[in-house]
From TrEMBL:
It catalyses: dTDP-4-dehydro-6-deoxy-alpha-D-glucose = dTDP-4-dehydro-beta-L-rhamnose. SUPFAM superfamilies: RmlC-like cupins. One of its GO terms (biological process) is dTDP-rhamnose biosynthetic process. It comes from Rhodothalassium salexigens DSM 2132. NCBIfam families: rmlC. Pfam families: dTDP_sugar_isom. Pathway: Carbohydrate biosynthesis; dTDP-L-rhamnose biosynthesis. This is dTDP-4-dehydrorhamnose 3,5-epimerase. Belongs to the dTDP-4-dehydrorhamnose 3,5-epimerase family. Its EC number is 5.1.3.13. The record marks Y140 as: Participates in a stacking interaction with the thymidine ring of dTDP-4-oxo-6-deoxyglucose.
């Protein structure tokens, strides 16, 4: 099997490691194989790939999610540069509601993160010229696009950038805090 799946502190969020075959030319890696993922317990259908480029270090994207019936699972990897990646549990009734997991992903490591439906997802770039590619399990639905304030103190996320130094979109600056967020994932 070409994939190793490691549950994180919130077990539904997983680090995915795929084998790299390298030589003097570089490497080859199968970053997604539906058969191997299913054998590892991940049976999702991805319908869209998204590619994000961030020119500057400390660019924040998120925390984003889509509401049902257009909720998205995401499989995230870095093509160049590095990110600090975060998933926040928004599933009402979950023992980890409002908690988060975070890890560094880089082009060098090739690791990925699987963020299931019911989580807000965000990242901050750790290097200039960072490119992120992520697969999603539902098409973009603008009427179901939502967010959570990335630096809400109630989340306790230890971001590697201060709010003052972060490069953030106007949309992400004005997202609601967890306490003001409607409960959308039962």
């Amino acid at each position: 099997m070409s994939v190793v799946v490691e549950p994180l502190a919130i077990p539904d969020v997983k680090r995915i490691r795929t084998r790299r075959h390298g030589d003097a030319r570089g490497f080859f890696s199968e970053t997604y194989n539906a058969r191997d993922f299913a054998a590892a317990g991940i049976d999702l259908t991805f319908v869209q790939d998204n590619h994000a480029y961030s020119a500057a270090r400390h660019t924040v994207r998120g925390l984003h999610f889509q509401t049902p019936p257009h909720a998205q699972a995401k499989l995230v990897r870095v093509l160049s540069g590095a990110i600090w990646d975060v998933a926040v549990d928004l599933r009402v009734g979950s023992p980890s509601y409002g908690a988060h997991v975070a890890l560094e992903l880089s082009a060098e490591s090739g690791d990925q993160i699987l963020v299931p439906e019911g989580f807000a997802h965000g990242l901050v770039t750790l290097a200039p010229h960072t490119q992120v590619l992520y697969k999603v399990s539902a098409f973009y639905a603008p009427d179901h696009d939502r967010g959570l304030l990335w630096h809400d103190p109630a989340l306790g996320i230890d971001w590697p950038v201060s709010p003052e130094a972060a490069i953030v979109s106007d949309k992400d600056r004005t997202q609601p805090r967890l306490a003001d967020l409607p409960r959308v994932f039962a």
